[in-house]
Structure formats: C-alpha cells, structure tokens
Amino acid sequence: MNAPFALSPSVQSTARAIPVPQSPDLDAIKQRQQATWASGDYAVIGTTLQIVGESLAEAVNLRAGERVLDVAAGNGNASLAAARRFATVTATDYVPHLLDKAAARAQADGLAVQFRVADVESLPFADGSFDVALSTFGAMFTPDHDKTADEMLRVVRPGGRIGLAAWTPDGFIGHLFRLVGTYVPPPAGVRSPVRWGDEPYLVELFGPRAADIQCAHRTFNFRYRSAAHWIEVFRTYYGPTHKAFAALDSEGQARLHGDLVKLLESRNVGGSNTLVVPSEYLEAVITRC
After folding, report:
1. Is the CB of residue 215 less than 8 Å from the CB of residue 287?
2. Model pTM greater than 0.70?
3. Alpha helices in the chain (DSSP H)
4. Which residues of the chain have pLDDT under 50?
C-alpha cells in the first residue's frame, strides 16, 4: 500500500503564505461611492441628459396613472419624464441633495413627484408596489449588481416593466472609465458598471424572472464648447471625475488632463470649433414574469 501523500515542509510553508482571496467589502465601497456622488454637483451634468429619460419613458410605453419608481434617480430625469406623462411617481436616491435638486426641477415644471431617500439595494417598498421601475445611468453604479436586480424585480408587480439606460462597455463612457481607472483603479473585486450596458449580462441578471427583455442601442451626444470645456465641467461637477483629479498630484492631474483631451478629440464629430462626442448606451425594457 502506498504511503499517504504529504507536502514537503517547504511546500507547506509556501502554501501557508498564499493569501486567501477575500470578497470585497461592499458596504465600505458603497459608502465611498455615496461620498463620490455627493461631491461636485451631478445635477449640472444630469440635466443635459434629460432626453434619455424621455426616450426611456416612451420605450416602456408609460401610461397615465401607472405607479412608477425611479431608482438611483439623481436629479430626476426619468422621474420628470414619467410625471409629464401623468404617472404617479416616486423618485429615490441615496444622496439627499440630488433629490433636493430634482424636487426643485419638479416644482419649477409644476410636476407632482414624491421624493424619498432610499438605497436601490434595499428598497423600502412592499413586493409588487409599482407598475414600472426606471433607472437612467443610476442602478448600473451600485456595487452589488445581483441585489440591485433582485430589488427592482421585487418591487414591480408581475407583468410590470423595468426600464434601464446604461452606458455600454465599448462606448465613449466605457472608454472614459477605463482611462480614469488607469490613474485611480476601481475597488478590487467589484464588477464594472458598464456591464449593465451589455445585453447578455442583463439577461444573466434579469432573465430567469423576465417574461421578455427588449434592448436597443442608443446614442447620446455630449455637446460642449471644446475638450477643455468638457474637462472643466466634468472635473468640477461629475463626482467620479472630480474625485479622480482630487486623488492625483499635480503631475498626475496634468497627465490625466492630457489623456482626456486625446480621448475627447479622437471622438469629436463636431469639427474644429466645437465638441460633439457620441456616447452609446443600452436602452432595455424588461417585462417581469
């Protein structure tokens, strides 16, 4: 009979030295993300994206009187689009001052929207409370994608719809995130937000509880005076870019600025005197079983 297999002392020492991979601390990551989105003033950027909310409201075939939840609503683009169509709208976000900006917009437009501070990964609503759940460039940034999908499905009634707009991996914003990540790496072990812009990934997240998933590739055009103007606005107001520059020394900031100029100018279709950068996003409508 052969002797039992045993590791040599040197191999045992090496094995003990190999670190065991640990799951990312999603709560800590969420706290950092919350601070990121609270920095700058996303509403300045968000209002330029209003057309995406209008398109999404049409894509889900929103009807007057339907109960609509906007998750990770930011400054309320989808919420306002739904309210303009006479839906009963609740807007949620975990950054209170963004909801304040959304409320001011709703008041200025004379629209009825209810606002509530809430985390999309733990929504304070009963099962099946809504006919429609919407998110424009919001749900995609949560650290726990599975929990986010589960919660959106849970609060929508059977036969209800979920409408999502998410930047694609190969679009301008996908390239932007990869570029910024070379300077300020994202947290280890956390899935990229632009995976929400990939149709097979949405099928993976929602498919087992979806009666139907319809996806379409759309384009949003960033329109600014120049590459320098875009960088100035995003560095000042867009939380992720604001935080990235703040994390770098002056040399790193200069290199990041230069690389952003190259990326923007390589994608500019507006000519030499202005900046028009097309950015692809995925518009998805998921019908719940």
Report:
1. no
2. yes
3. 9-17, 26-38, 42-46, 50-59, 77-84, 96-109, 145-155, 172-183, 199-206, 227-237, 239-246, 250-267
4. 1-21
